[in-house]
Amino acid sequence: xxxxxxxxxxxxxxxxxxxxxxxxxxxxxxxxxxxxxxxxxxxxxxxxxxxxxxxxxxxxxxxxxxxxxxxxxxxxxxxxxxxxxxxxxxxxxxxxxxxxxxxxxxxxxxxxxxxxxxxxxxxxxxxxxxxxxxxxxxxxxxxxxxxxxxxxxx
Length: 154
Fold this sequence. Notes:
Layout: H1 7-14, H2 21-32, H3 38-49, H4 54-66, E1 71-73, E2 81-83, E3 91-95, E4 101-104, E5 130-133, H5 136-152
Parallel strand pairs: 3-5
Antiparallel strand pairs: 1-2, 3-4
Helix pairs in contact: 1-2, 2-3, 3-4
């Protein structure tokens, strides 16, 4: 069983919250498994610590996200995902077939990189964009399946 990564303790303290073994293990799990859903984070924390209560992990995710130490993303129709990459204005691309999530740079310039025609008086500071498509591996598998089907029926 691996211990949580100590570099996170100072980040957590600097954010004004108590550094706990669960919080550092959550951040370590996200380093090992970027774009993880809660269940994957739980498995990662258990890899680092051996055991941890689900409620403690939920609480750690909430407090770390509220302090901006981790980012919660919510692709439409998917479970919430968490990542360590914060403080920049990147976006995500999601494979419709396998669910793989990748980071992509901001579309143009600094935050927000898109400007709506109406802001309703809001002062904008961020735009979240999720692109959807098919990753290369899934596209290759689909092509191979079609090729195999065509060959079998020739």
